[in-house]
Design goal:
Strand order of the largest sheet: 6-3-8-2-1-9
Largest sheet: 6 strands, antiparallel
Helix content: 10-25%
Number of strands: 9
Radius of gyration: 14 Å
Structural class: mainly beta
């Protein structure tokens, strides 16, 4: 397929992997994510990547430096390049399901990280 066409809401809601790359283009990458109850991505920064997030299920706290924003299903967040950020699943029982678009791509095409631990291990070996 030339690009990506698909039921993004259903694909996001069905995803149980911490991170799964659905599509990688020259300038953008589509990724679905699932954070377990209480899990967080961890404070990070992408110096050359803008990132768009859309929450499909659950509630999250987005932290930009000293700013905090509580968001839920249907909300979108954009993190500009060079901004330290963290995404925290605030629920003690429910999974957080979201998708994100990196521009430009941030992960190798086809990446699937089943857990956060697997993602952290892989990122030690990735060259950004």
């Amino acid at each position: 397929m030339t690009g990506f066409v698909g039921p993004i809401e259903k694909l996001t809601e069905k995803n149980v992997n911490f991170r799964q790359v659905l599509y990688t283009g020259k300038y953008a990458q589509l990724v679905v994510m699932c954070l377990q109850a209480g899990e967080e991505i961890g404070n990070e920064v992408h110096n050359t990547v803008d990132q768009f997030f859309r929450i499909e299920e659950g509630e999250a706290k987005f932290v930009y430096g000293a700013e905090e924003h509580l968001v839920g299903a249907g909300d979108a967040v954009i993190v500009p390049a060079g901004t330290y950020h963290n995404v925290i699943n605030t629920s003690k029982t429910e999974k957080l399901k979201l998708y994100t678009v990196y521009s430009p791509p941030n992960h190798p095409d086809g990446t699937i990280h089943k857990t956060k631990a697997e993602a952290e291990e892989a990122e030690k070996h990735e060259h950004h």
